[in-house]
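3.2 Worked example (two chains)
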Amino acid sequence: MLHGVFPALPTPFSEDGCSVQTEKIKPLCDALLADGVDGFFICGTTGEGPYLNASEKIAVVEETIHAVDGRAKILVQVGGGDLPGTLQVIKTVTSMKIDAVSLLQPWFFHCDEEAQYQYIARIAETLDGFPLYLYNLPCFSGNNLQPAVLERLRKQFPNIHGLKESGDPELLERWQPYQSDAFQVICGNDTQMLPTLRRGGYAVVASTANVIPHIFRKLLDAARDGQWDEAERCQKKISEFVSIIIGPNAIAYIKACLAFKGLDAGSNRPPNRNLSAVEKEALREKLKETGIIP
């Protein structure tokens, strides 16, 4: 099972967005590990995973493994827009030193429950016992995993160790009855870390943990020690930061914030875009007002 804070690591792209700059991954990992994170979630939404082809995903995994060098856990989102590419990524990365894979719900086309079941079952079977965490993000994928589908899958595939829910708070609450020693509900909604911990969860995957990992660490430690007032203050600060960057170009805002801290996370891949100079300056001012950066 996964414990602690897992930043959803951004993927650094070249200025034109056409290539991955893997050499920028290690400095990001080193800085985040120095701030006390427990692992990394790579090739997900913040990593612009849906825009990565199979070879690029594999390259990102290879470099992240090299960068982490056994110091933290690595969770890889393997799903792609094409099944052959997804299977290629699975075959390759499960032979590497990673801890688990995650599978984003199918996207773009609306899939009924049977289609979703068959797709996830095929991936789980291909993994041949390797740990799998499902990944529900219906506001982006357009497909919302249903409890009935999860129940069918769990009966057949014990390697499904849990689910990362990145949807609305009520979706996180929906999965709580499934939380057990054999199945983990991971919080993928930055504003819901504290409620998840209160309900017995013990892991969060968060995009804003790239920028303010120390606050996530402080929240987690406070919750473990029963210091709920301090945990509330930390969650309020996280939610305040989320309110600044949420919406279109959120990944660009994350990368700009990292740049303010002296960390180069590269450019975005089109059709995602970078922030303009005016947008960056406005962001800097907001972060100063809230005390997120000095």
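3.2.1 Second chain
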Amino acid sequence: MRRLPWITAALIAVLLTLNGSALASSTKEQADLLTVREAVWRDWFAGDTKSLAKLVPSNAIAISTGEEHWQNHADIFREAVKFHASGGKLVRLEFPRTEVQRFGNVAVLYSKYLYETETNGKRSLSSGRATEVFVLNNGQWTNPGWHTDSEK
């Protein structure tokens, strides 16, 4: 009977250690996910199609604020290049609120966003909500789809 408390304590310690490892792993994965999400936005505004190609797969679909036409991969890249070529640059990017739902190798991010751009010396502030889908494939998060809307 004396051994039962020790065995119970040892099992609890092992379970807490395992749970802590899982938590650390998922915390790192979530940090990686948020880093990739920000990279997608920054690469788009920078017109960096080489980096963007690693993060946005060829079957991507985007539904953007105020756009009647849903964008495919080619449209997404064309618009990124067009924004950058017009002299546009990202001044500020913030995600004041983000909720993450994880389903195995798929994560859905629900966010509030705010960004400020500058084109030809004129600054423009945009804010809204985004729903973004990410897929973990071979250790790399990719972003095959998103939907944004403007905040009223």
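3.3 Remarks
Residues 3-150 form a domain with the Nuclear Transport Factor 2; Chain: A, fold (CATH 3.10.450.50).
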